[in-house]
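HTH CENPB-type domain-containing protein
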Amino acid sequence: MRRLRNVEYLSRPFLDDFLVKRAGMNVLRQESLGYALSHSQLRACVEAIVKQQGDNKPLGKHWTTRFVKCHLQLSTKLGKHQEAARFDGFTPKAVNWYFDIRETEYRWIKPENTVNVDEGGIMAGFGLDSPVIGSSDQKKKALLKGVQSRTWTSFIEAVTATGRALKPGIIFKGKELQKQWFLKEFELIADWHYITSPNGWTDNHIALEWLKDVYLPQTEPRDASDARLIILDGHGSHAQDEWMATCFLNNVYCCYLPAHCSHGLQPLDNGIFNVIKGAYRKELQKLASLTDSAPVDKVNFIRAYAKAREAGMRKEIILSGWRFTGNWPINRHKALTHPEIQPDKEKLLEEFRMPSPPQLHSDDTSKTSRQVREMAKHRSRPTRRKYSKIAKGLEALEMKVAVQNARITGLEEQMAQVRRGKKRKAVPNPNRRFMA
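Tokens:
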């Protein structure tokens, strides 16, 4: 921790400067673990510590605000919720594992023959809330009329490391395609690959059809002897036997991303899909203003998505996604410095390891850091130094106990909802299977 701006007004009889600094370190540690503390959670932890010291008076109303201001390394920011598995999975260990494969097995494959493929989805009828002009009456809400359809449509997109976008695959939710979904004005984009599925998501059949009818024809190398590479997630449909056999027969290699790391290692997930989805929602708003709450059917979806792809599938955006993730040019340092990467658990525990308090061999051993400091009064300077070290160790332990108690309380509440866990099948490593 760097020095504090001013901690005098944070101090209380049982809350000294050392404990304030220790609380600041704990805030950083909790953020690294994916459990960043809110103001109320920080207050609860600190109050639990001072109660252990014998002070039951609550902290001041603005104590946590002043606490953040006095620490140079802390600030209040918007917390982003993320699935725990995705948060914990994207670590340097996973990144190095992936790039070891990329560099040793597939570096020789040309960038024009290297493709990243991923499936995304859009709720067909949801636009963006945006600033509008209305009356100055703050109590009167400005509502935007429109049909908020919940029809889900998926798309399969693929881009090369040289910035070229393949024609997309569109997966509508339904039983079969209907001619009225397509108009003459869509002749320019009618060579997209359209298919339906009961839930609007891909399955083994759809994945295989995309591989044969979309990917293979559009990525035919100039030199027939050149190999091709697909970078993709380890979804079961991408590791089925027929998929593997088709790739083998066509000299196509598959490099599978580590589990729960696609948001950090996949080019399509880093910029491209964000631009497409944002542009799509803006197109929906334009459509709603013209059609006055007409439902977003398949025709309107294709119209809006075609416009969105023009914005998101530009060459510079595609190349940016490849560079940002370190996939091309191959640069693992880019991925290791990704803003969402989390430290390996072993390194994190070592970095934030709390010092163990020295052992005291006495029948009347003090139980709190306050009692230790009281014992140090009126003693020689060397003795006071030793007592100070003991007190600091106890304060560190008290902070650790307070945080763990808060965590235990939260886990107990979760366990009350989920009493029995389900058995989970072990997920095989598709990279090992494919390369074997």
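The longest strand covers residues 114-123.
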